[in-house]
Design brief:
endopeptidase fold (from Nostoc punctiforme), two-stranded antiparallel ribbon, 181 residues, 8 strands, 6 helices, six-stranded antiparallel beta sheet, alpha+beta
């Protein structure tokens, strides 16, 4: 027979697993986590880091400038820009991000795709103007490139969008001016 302390510990661990997953999944990067970097600068830094990786070759499992897979590209962009560690796989990023409508997409948000199987298997960083930056593993060009959400392949495989950085109307004005000018 299981003692009371083992029983309580079992349910405590079980509760942490389920509750911890849902808490982690529901909380994107907060302004407090940005440690003094305002939300506008955070988005601009992530986009600048992502652009600095353009042309980096595709490498399955890659998380450095020698080669990047799609989620490694996003992880490295956030690490270099903000010194923040985010979930490693495209699916875990999808679960973690705050879900938003496609019409709400802003530069610095994440875009998710189902390219293999039935769950999210590809991720990129929305750059504005219907374009996103990602590390492509197939197609006419591979590695870190810009692509358009309106391309038939990306339209067909699009699963959704997620917000991981703060956003408000002040940010909207600044980002719009800087990214679309």
């Amino acid at each position: 027979m299981m003692g009371l302390s083992k029983f309580l510990r079992f349910f405590w661990v079980l509760g942490l697993f389920f509750l911890g997953t849902s808490i982690f999944a529901a909380i994107p990067i907060s302004e407090r986590a940005l440690q003094g970097v305002n939300a506008v600068d955070a988005r601009l830094k992530v986009l600048a880091a992502a652009r600095s990786l353009l042309g980096t070759p595709y490498r399955f499992g890659g998380v450095d400038r020698r080669g990047l897979d799609c989620s490694g590209f996003v992880v490295l962009s956030f690490r270099e820009a903000l010194n923040i560690t985010i979930p490693r796989t495209s699916h875990s990023m999808y679960v973690w991000a705050q879900r938003i409508e496609t019409s709400e997409l802003k530069p610095g948000d994440l875009v998710f795709f189902v390219t293999v199987g039935q769950r999210v298997s590809h991720v990129g960083i929305y750059a504005g103007g219907g374009r996103f930056i990602h590390s492509a593993s197939a197609g006419p060009r591979t590695g870190v490139i810009y692509s358009s959400l309106s391309e038939s392949y990306w339209r067909r495989t699009f699963r959704g969008a997620g917000r991981v950085l703060p956003w408000d109307n002040t940010i909207a004005e600044v980002i719009t001016i800087l990214c679309y000018s």
